Amino acid sequence: MTVQDQTVAWDRRSTAGLTELITGLYQEALSNEGLDEKADFFESGGDSLTAFQITGRIQEALGTEIAVALVFAYPTPEELAEIVAEELADTPAGVAHE
Q1: How far is CA 72 from CA 47, 50, 98, in A?
Q2: What's the structural domain count of the chain?
Q3: Alpha-carbon distance 78 to 58, whole Å?
Q4: Do 45 and 38 meet the contact criterion of CB atoms below 8 Å apart?
Q5: How many CB atoms are located within 10 Å of the residue 46 CB?
Q6: Which of 14, 44, 53, 96 has the fewest CB atoms nearer than 10 Å to its CB?
Q7: What is the pLDDT of residue 38?
Q8: What pTM did the predictor assign?
Q9: What pLDDT digit, counting tens, does each position of 64-98 carry?
Q10: Taking the alpha carbons of 14, 15, 19, 25 in that order, is the dihedral positive or negative?
């Protein structure tokens, strides 16, 4: 499923689709299809460059800026999806950041 397909599937009332989207982005950026929503960014080989790639792809998919610091503060796709969903709900067409 492409980022665009996943974006369409995401329901802003639920983090499930967002978690799936971010998990897919982790899998792509870290070149590991075996990662799941509980995979830790750092333990999976993530670094600062990869964090920028992930946030760039999230921004592309959601149409809003996501601070790279969020990947470091919330290192699993599940945790990141929760905070991004909260930030998006609180920030109409704005910037999600910590």
Answers
A1: 9, 11, 11
A2: 1
A3: 14
A4: no
A5: 20
A6: 14
A7: 98
A8: 0.79
A9: 889 999 999 999 999 999 999 988 887 655 455 54
A10: positive
Which single residue is written with the structure tokens 């999806």?
81
Q: Please report, for the domain that includes residue 40, its CATH number.
A: 1.10.1200.10
Distance of CA 3 to the CA centre of its chain: 11
3-state secondary structure the chain: CCHHHHHHHCCCCCCHHHHHHHHHHHHHHCCCCCCCCCCCCCCCCCCHHHHHHHHHHHHHHHCCEECCHHHHHCCCHHHHHHHHHHHHHHCCCCEECC
- Tell me which residue of 1, 9, 10, 17 sits closest to 78, measured CA to CA: 17
How many whole angstroms separate alpha carbon 56 and alpha carbon 61? 9
Residue with tokens 């998990």: 23
